[in-house]
Recover the amino acids of this structure.
């Protein structure tokens, strides 16, 4: 109960912050909006893709029980069953300074992960139940710059990220991304670029990125943002949108006292979530989101904080599992519910 109260208190504070500091990207009158330049729309589209977080976002997710296999160093060890996996995520993205060609913002995030696991003891059929809670916090300072190159609109984004747990500050990371608008008309928007991840624990430091959105005559919309998501969308009712596709997500938190020493570890897993998403706008700028489908986790790894993801001391391979996610976000930048 105390956990729920503290979470809702933080959420309430973020709502106040978002209402005070968030800025609507398009304050153009309705008539002018009807003839809004495609460039402005695609810049908003690309900027939304690259945002670390929406202005305000709250999510609760639950994963059905699943079994997993495990390996310690090069030795196969007994697996087990995760009987409960739940997460609460909160984040806020606050604009600090907004100019014609650049934007300075800050992001705050909190993630609570609760895991209950039945583990088989080595050499026996006996099981022990482990129930753990993990807290992950991060904050970042972000700078976005809007320019042009070879006659094309270009958007640059850089971020300095600090993270940690409820016990300690842990890492300083850096992100840099650049994207060029290759095509922009009423039906199609296409961009290409790259992202550099300055993080010792990153899976890969360089990531090519590509986005493509196309509106078909039957109302369907292909929305691709590689490597993050592939979606087929359709607007429904007056203020809703349904999507079918796949998106990447992940879980990360720090671990202490695993081996009775002061050594710090980090756990990371990459999730591939495939299924249905429904979004519905309420009260003009608030969006309700519900997701459900199958989660596939190629691997989850524990590694020493100062080493890389590729050098795990322990790794797990979970079976596919069903998941459900519900959330609410404050997002004045969304085109959902506006004239398209």
């Amino acid at each position: 109960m105390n956990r729920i109260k503290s979470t809702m208190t933080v959420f309430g504070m973020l709502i106040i912050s978002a209402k005070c500091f968030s800025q609507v990207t398009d304050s153009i009158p309705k008539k002018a909006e009807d003839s809004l330049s495609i460039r402005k729309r695609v810049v908003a589209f690309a900027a939304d893709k690259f945002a670390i977080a929406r202005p305000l976002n709250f999510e609760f997710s639950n994963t059905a029980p699943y079994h997993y296999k495990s390996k310690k160093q090069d030795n196969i060890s007994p697996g087990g069953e995760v009987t409960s996996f739940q997460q609460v995520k909160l984040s806020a993205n606050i604009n600090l300074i907004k100019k014609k060609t650049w934007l300075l913002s800050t992001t705050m995030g909190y993630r609570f992960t609760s895991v209950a696991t039945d583990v088989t003891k080595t050499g026996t059929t006996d099981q022990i139940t482990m129930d753990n809670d993990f807290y992950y916090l991060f904050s970042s300072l972000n700078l976005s710059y809007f320019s042009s190159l070879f006659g094309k609109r270009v958007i640059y984004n850089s971020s300095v990220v600090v993270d940690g747990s409820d016990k300690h500050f842990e890492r300083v990371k850096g992100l840099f991304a650049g994207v060029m608008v290759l095509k922009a008309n009423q039906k199609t928007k296409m961009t290409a670029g790259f992202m550099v991840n300055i993080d010792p624990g990153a899976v890969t430091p360089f990531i090519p990125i590509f986005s493509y959105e196309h509106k078909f005559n039957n109302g369907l919309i292909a929305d691709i943002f590689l490597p993050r998501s592939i979606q087929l969308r359709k607007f429904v009712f007056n203020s809703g949108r349904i999507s079918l596709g796949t998106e990447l997500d992940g879980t990360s938190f720090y671990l202490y006292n695993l081996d009775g020493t002061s050594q710090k570890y980090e756990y990371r897993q990459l999730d591939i979530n495939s299924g249905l998403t429904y979004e519905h706008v309420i009260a003009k700028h608030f969006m309700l989101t519900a997701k459900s489908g199958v989660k596939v986790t190629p691997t989850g790894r524990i590694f020493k904080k100062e080493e890389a993801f590729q050098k795990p001391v322990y790794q797990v391979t979970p079976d596919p599992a069903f998941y459900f996610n519900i959330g609410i976000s404050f997002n004045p930048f969304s085109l959902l519910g506006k004239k398209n």
